[in-house]
Amino acid sequence: MSNKSHLAHEEIKPKKLSIEQQIQAYLKEKGATSLQMVEFDLGLKNQTASARLSEMHDKGIVTFDPYGAYRLTYNEEEQQHVILERKRERYDKWVAKGYNNKWIKQIYAVVPEGGGKTEVRMIFADE
Question: What pLDDT was estimated at residue 3?
Fold first, then answer.
């Protein structure tokens, strides 16, 4: 995170929950909608609306409908699914970045012969 981003984050911290609550109430009333409509209707800057929706997505509060619009998740089960999906997306990005930047040399799976839990192992460039 850049220094400018960190300062902006610190400045908005007290307002974050309030903005998150506004977005949640908006989506509850309007239903699925785009980032641009959330920005426009709530009078938020693009970066602010995008950041809060991303955080809400990480928490499983919102997800995307089949058309790419943000919507509230329906229940606890869907929330947990969204949280796990977001973690996987971040992990996959981290692995891809590791390959591209040559931190990760190899990834392989160890599958026990008699059954059991499969382990994923990595060989890093400094090993």
Answer: 81
